[in-house]
Amino acid sequence: MTSPADPTEPLDKAVRQRRLRRAQAESEGRQSIGRHLALIGVVGWTIVLPTLAGMFLGRWLDRVFATQSGIFWTLGLLVAGLAAGCALAWKRINRE
Questions:
Q1: Considering the entire predicted model, what is its pTM?
Q2: Predicted confidence band at 1 (pLDDT cuts at 50, 70, 90)?
Q3: N vs C: which end of the chain shows fewer Cβ within 10 Å?
Q4: pLDDT at position 67, please?
Q5: What per-residue confidence (pLDDT) applies to 70?
Q6: What span, in angstroms and rounded, lies between the C-alpha atoms of 63 and 66?
């Protein structure tokens, strides 16, 4: 039978310190830089995708209906997509 690992071993000591630091960071509400960068990326795509979808749908509607102004649907749906994207991003940030 083997005895439990000696707590003075360097690896065991390093693991314990890392667990303690992680627990302290979680209790203080701190998050890693990588997590913040990931959130920025997600928020960016959350705004960009609805905006582009609105723009492409508006361009298609302008071609189908051949409106006099040429950008009636494009501009309206671009703004609507941007507003929807910003609202979704706001909700996402508040959830985090």
A1: 0.65
A2: very low
A3: N
A4: 66
A5: 81
A6: 5
Crossing angle of helices 33-65/72-95, nearest 10°?
160
Measured CA to CA, the distance from residue 86 to residue 41 in angstroms comes to 14
In the predicted model, what is the mean pLDDT of residues 46-62? Answer: 95
Q: Alpha-carbon distance 42 to 95, whole Å?
A: 13
Give the number of other CB atoms < 10 A from CB of residue 55: 18
Judged by DSSP in three states, 96 sits in coil
Q: Which residues of 56-70 are buried (b: 16+ CB within 10 A; e: fewer)?
A: ebbbeebeeeeeeee
Residue type, 85: G
Q: pLDDT tens digits for 18-40?
A: 999 888 877 776 667 888 888 89
3-state helix, strand, coil in the chain (%, to 5): 80, 0, 20
